[in-house]
Amino acid sequence: MVLAQLLETLYKGDQKQIVELVRQAFDAGMAPETVLKEGLIAGMDEVGRKFQAGEIYIPHMLLAARAMHAALDILKPLLVERGNAPAGRVVLGTVKGDHHDIGKNLVATMLEGKGFEVIDVGIDAPPEKFVAAVDETVRIVAMSALLSTTAPFIGETIVAFEQAALRENIKIMVGGGAVTREFAERIGADAYGADAAAAAGLAMQLAGSEDVNQR
Amino acid sequence: MNGKQRILTALAVREADRVPLYIHGINEGPIIGIGNRITDGLPEVMDFREMDDSAKMKVLDTLFLIHETFEVDGFSAFEIGHETPVDDLHIQDDFGVVYALSEFGLPVAKGHPVKDASDLAQYTPPEPSRGHLLLLDLARDRFKNEKALFWLMRGAFVRCWRLMGMENMMLKMFDDPEFVHKVARMTLRYNLAQLELLVEAGLDVLVVEDDIADKNFPLIAPEQFLEFVNPYNRKIVDAAHARGLKVVRHSDGNLWPLMDILLESGYDGLNPLEPQAGMALEKVKDYCGKRLCLLGNIDCIDLLPDGTPQQVDAAVAQAIEDAGKGGGLIICSSNSLHPGVDPDNCIAMFEATRKYGRYTSD
To answer: Which has more pLDDT, B285 or A79?
Structure first.
C-alpha cells in the first residue's frame, strides 16, 4: 500500500508527502532496498514511460525528479550503511561548446532513479574533462549535444578516450537534440538514447553485460 | 509583383506571381560564404561583435546585397544595441539576463535576474528603445518598400524563461503560478510597447519567435502552454493585426500537440517546420489547408550542410509540389542559415525557388 502511494506521490511530485511515505515504510519494517526498488525505481520507470509516450512533459519530469531527490536524501545513507553498492557509476556531461543542461539533468535524474551514481562533469565540458572523470570504477560515459555545431565534440571526446587508452574500459552512450542513431553509429558510440528514459534503460543494459553493444 | 507584395500575398494564403523566398535568420559564416560569390573585400568569418566598424558595415551591406542578388523577398530584422559585454565570455541584455557566448552557436542565457516573487518586487523592466530598431531602419531605407520587412520578437515563453531560468520556470508553474503570470504580463507590456515603435518604423510582418518544442515534443504540456504562454502571445497577435501587420509564429521542434491551439490563435504563418521534428511539409499543408501560410522546411540539419546543390534543387521542387498549390508557401530553410551550411547549397535553394516557383506565365 505504501509502495503504491510512493509511486503515485512521485508522479505528482509532492516532496513533503514522499518523505513522509518513506518514513512510514521504514516504520512498517520495510527495507530501504525495497523502498528504492519497488517504490522509487518503479515510480521513475512509470514517469519515464509516460514521458516517452507524450502523456507528460518536461515540467512533470522535473517535479518527479525533485520528489525523488527528497526521498533519496533519506535513503542513500541507509543504503550505504547496509553495504549496498550503486548499480554503477556514470560520467555524464554536455560536450564542449554546448551550454544546454536540462536534457543532461533529466538523464542524471533518470539514472539516479535506476540506482546509478552520477558523476556530472557539467556543461561545455571539453574532452579532457570527461577523460579525467573516468577511473577504474566508471563503466559508462554519457554525452549529449543540443547543437549540430557542437555534436562533433562527442566524436572528439571518444577519440580522446582512445588516446588515453580508456576506450576499451567503458561503454559510451550519446544523445541530445543534435544527435541521431546514425550519427551515434558513425562516431563509434556504443549506444544512442532518444530521451532521458531511454538513456536510463540503456545504462541498465550496458551495466548488466560487458558485451552489450546497443545501437 | 515585388517581394513585399509576394510575401503578403503568400501570407494571405493566395497565389502570388511566384512562390516567395525568405531568410529567417543567417549567421556571419553564411553571409560571408555566400557574399564571397557576389562581392569582394569581406572579412574573415568571426563574431559580428568582434568586427571593427568597417567590417561590420561591409557584412551588413553584403547581407542586403544577398537579398537583392538572389531576389529574397523578405528581410528579417531584429533588435541590436540591447546587449553589453560583461566580460570576454558573457554579455548581458537590457532585461539583465546574462548570456554565455559560444563560438558554436547563439549565446545561451545563464544568468537569470527574476527567479522568484522577491526578485520581481525589486525588478525594473527596461523600456523598448527606438534606437534598437536600427537594422529595421536600414533595411527600410535600402529596400524602399520592395521587400517585406520582418521583425523577430521574442514571445512569452522565451522572455519568461530567460528571466527566470527554464527549470525554475517549469517548476514555478506548479509552485507559484501567479508569479509566472506576473512575469509574463511584464514581458507582454514590453512587447506591446515595442510593437508601437515597429509599426511607426514601417514593419510589415511580425514574427513571434518563441521556441516551445524540441524534436520529440513540446517543452511544456499543452495545458501549460494554454495557461502560461499562448494568452500572452495571442495578445501580441491581436495587437499586430489591429495595426495591419501580418504575424508569423516561429518555433523549432515538433509542434503537432499544439497545432490546433496555434491554428486558433490567429497567426498568418508558421515557421520553420523542421523535417527532423516530424513537421513534414505535405502533412502540415494537408492539416492546415488555407488557414496558415507555411515558411520553411528546407532541411538545414543535413541537406544544406552536407547535401549537393542538385539535392537542394530537388528538395525545393518537392516543397513547391507538396505545398505550393493555391499559395500559402514561402521557401525558407528549416531554421537559420547557421555556420555549418554550404554557401553553394544556399544559393541552390535561392535559385531553385525562382526556377520552380512560378505560378503564372507573366
So the answer is: B285
For the CA atoms of B22, B136, B249, A146, what is the dihedral angle to 10 degrees? 80
Largest separation between any pair of C-alpha atoms in chain A: 53
- SS3 state of residue B295: strand
CATH number for region A89-208: 3.40.50.280
Percent of chain A beyond pLDDT 70? 97
Q: Indicate yes or no: CB of A177 within 8 angstroms of CB of B214.
A: yes
Phi, psi at A28, each rounded to 5°: -80, 5
Cβ contact B336:B300 at 8 Å: yes
What fold does the segment set A2-81 form as a domain? 1.10.1240
Q: What is the DSSP string of A9-63?
A: HHHHT-HHHHHHHHHHHHHTT--HHHIIIIIIIHHHHHHHHHHHTTSS-HHHHHH
C-alpha cell at B239: 495587437
Residue A215 banded pLDDT, cuts 50, 70, 90: very low
ipTM here? 0.92
CB burial readout A42-69, b (16+ within 10 A) else e: bbbbbbbebbbeeebbbbbbbbbbbbbe
pTM: 0.91
DSSP single-letter state for residue B335: S
Q: Tell me, what CATH number does B36's domain have?
A: 3.20.20.210
Distance to chain A for B159, nearest Cα, Å? 17
Cell output for B1: 509583383
> What 8-state DSSP symbol labels residue B325?
T
Q: How far apart are CA A170 and CA A161, in angstroms?
A: 9
Q: Please give the residue range of the domain that contains residue B234.
A: 3-81+113-356
Put simply, the answer to whether A177 touches B166 (Cβ < 8 Å) is: no
Please indicate if any CB of chain B lies within 8 Å of the CB of A57: yes
